[in-house]
Design brief:
The chain is α/β, with parallel strands linked by helices. It has 2 domains: 226 residues, Rossmann fold; 237 residues, Rossmann fold (3-Layer(aba) Sandwich), CATH 3.40.50. 43% of the residues lie in helices and 16% in strands. The protein is built from 22 helices and 15 strands. The strands form 3 sheets. A 9-stranded mixed sheet has the order 1-2-13-12-7-6-3-4-5, sandwiched between helices. A 4-stranded parallel sheet has the order 9-10-8-11, sandwiched between helices. α7 links the parallel β6 and β7.
Length: 544
Amino acid sequence: MTKSALQIARAAYQPKLPKALQGPVAAKEGAATQSVGDQAKIKEIFPNTYGLPIIEFVAGEQKAFEPINVGVILSGGQAPGGHNVISGLFDGVKSINPDSKLYGFILGPGGLVDHKYMELTADIIDEYRNTGGFDIIGSGRTKLEKEEQFEKGIEILRQLNIKALVIIGGDDSNTNACVLAEYYAKKNYGVQVIGCPKTIDGDLKNEQIETSFGFDTACKTYSELIGNIQRDCNSSRKYWHFIKLMGRSASHIALECALQTQPNICLISEEVEKKEMSLDDVVNYIADIVAARAAEGNNYGTVLIPEGIIEFIPSIKRLIAELNELLSDPKTHEPREFNSAEEQLEYVEKHLSAANLTELHKLPEDVARQLCLDRDPHGNVQVSLIETEKLLSRMVAKLLKETKRAPKFNAQHHFFGYEGRCAAPSNYDADYCYSLGFNASRLIAAGKTGYMSIIRNTTAPAAEWVAGGVPITMMMNIERRNGADKPVIRKALVELDGAPFKYFAAHRDEWAKNTCYVYPGPIQYFGPTEVCDQSTKTLQLEQA
């Protein structure tokens, strides 16, 4: 691997660990837990891993451990810091016993099922410390849901004498980790399963998980780009920039980037839903601000848009929910098969309810076709493919023309997604991820299964961080997915009564009227702590 000067310098960075993990640990157990919803049903589905206590690691006595072989999987979309989770896990299992081994399954959960793996040695690990990406073993989106997959997995785990499996992923991946842990516990297979919270979208969080890893770096990366655009915008003063940001299920990225850059407009999907805004309401909101700035001679600005906002508009949300049900086979819950796009469209037109059909016909034809035709492997609408930034700017332009306001309105469009997923991790994510991985090794040594590795108190210096584990079942509830009720980890949405949103809401009118842009610049790796080691503004406001 050819390394850049930054990579060479970053390779020497030693991530910081919580004080509790710097020596022998003991597991301090809290009270029994219960799921966040549907307690009876979740307990019935997970009888062997339900109700476990929260774990906190404290200083303990030195013990001798036998060597242990551990497997690791990267699951789902990439997020900055994944390599540090693996390097922390590697260092952790080696500190348990130098003869312990770490195996990586290639290209995600599919590698476990298909028996594709590699041993991760010190030489390999050292090449990837403090780097972005998931390329050390690759990632994939295979869902571990079926008994035959679990049985194929146990074959290779036994062959490699692997006693614990760490799954690094988001809410769906960790739901799968919980299901796998329950299955192996029920069968007495002697394999522990531990999860690690990953998703740049920031929606895997709760009272125990302060933030999912990668969110900090991704938001800093996007904010640098937004700041660059805003500086260009403020230089030429002739364009409105519509910037779509990742975040299908929640608006955490958009909100954090707004807090960092102070754009003229930032839409928050959860607020749109709460206020029951229609698509026309959203368009009018943007157009009013554009017109107000134009009246002051400011025919330019920036608009931040979460990629999933379409799903949060109540009328369109109802439409999408019915489409998801309609286009899923009720027996298999897999996507229905059609011979052609036209046959699929005809089926939708024939079977969609009158109210939702009316809503579908209100949309521009190209957007309506996307909603009806583009599905992900699980049969859901591919919201990220809908060019919401172009849809909104088109509708704003049309409204402004009809009302003869802001005649100089010109739009530019951007979508920041892949640009942030594999960025070199910030110091915060480098430390946080390394700690999550090292901490996972301590959960394994403590004999735990069905737990997620957690690190808390992360706005304090790293030595004061609190390490431990939370039962994955504690985060679960029942949701309707593809025409069936399924146990899933509850997604964390932007809280409209939370400190980050309240701060944003208190300042957005000023940012809309005036040009208050902030230009954060690139992520800083070297320099004063107040520049380099800060967490997100979201977390600072939440922990204040």
